[in-house]
Design a protein that fits this description.
alpha/beta, Rossmann fold, Arc Repressor Mutant, subunit A, six-stranded mixed beta sheet, five-stranded parallel beta sheet, 14 strands
Length: 354
Amino acid sequence: MQILLEEFYKIDLYMDKYVDRKIYIDEKSYQINGIAQSGKTKLIKNHLLSKKKSSYLYVDCSDVRIDIDRFNIHMPKFCLDNKIDILVLDNYDERFKFANVSQLIISSQKPYNIDFLDTIRVYPLDYEEFLAYEHKYDSSALNHFFQLGGFAHMHKLHSDSRNLYIQKTLKYTLDDMEFDILKFCAKMMSQKVSAYTIYERLKNSRKISKDKLYKSYENLVKKNYIHNLEKFEHKKATKKLYLCDTSLKSALSIDKHFTRLFENMVYLELLKSNTTCFYDDGIDFYIPHANKVILCKPFADERMLFKKIEAIEEFIFTHQIKIVIAITMNKESTISHPLSRVQMIPFDIWALGD
């Protein structure tokens, strides 16, 4: 194991040109959590490559050559002898032990309860980050975002390889049960779905236990492959389900429903900006702290929106909503309303402005 540690220490880290994200690593110790291909390793390597090579030890815990028991015996002394300041355990699992170093960084899909580590959560690219990968910013950029989603690697793949690439990545990362659940979720994005509903559907096509399905479902939520949105002031109501990235919809399902895809995109922008929101009857997203309602209306006009506002006036009045924003594909307008400011804003303007 000493020989392998020497190899890890001496090897030169390589990374393609790094495109800055909205997140970064400073001098604190961190656990970095995110789904596969979200950019965890690139974030770590970008940090390490700004440091003196002899000051860090980078270990990919998924390396099959590692004997974990022997590694745990030799690694702390190796760090001490070589005066390692920064220890990175990429693809970490809890069988690996830590060493006494100035900065510890671990990365994994699911979070661990380690109180001395701050947490950085890495999501696929939001729209603003996505634009950094575009050769030029024009009207085609938003269409590219719909096609590619937030996985940076998709820019390097030809269109005929993208869906298979996502499928292979998910099959490698998830177990069979998790993969089957995610496939079903891809059909149900932006709808009210419970784990019990998924169990009732999947038990007809495969042998399955309710307890195992519930556990797999919870793992997908913990690892952020799927997200659940609560109904406002109704914690026990069925939650709405969203995917971690809209590209999973076309990769795992042949169903087409652009309005639901659009709603999922809006939700992810809210999620990545740490906006606390809820849904309600007739309300896509309610943001209590801002007295704001967001409606996803990609192809609405003023007449359609006015009818929608009439349908939710009771909610607007009851909760003293100050702003109603209808997010569209390209329509921009303001509608006069006695209770709230009502605006139609194209997705790209809204995503960059908020």
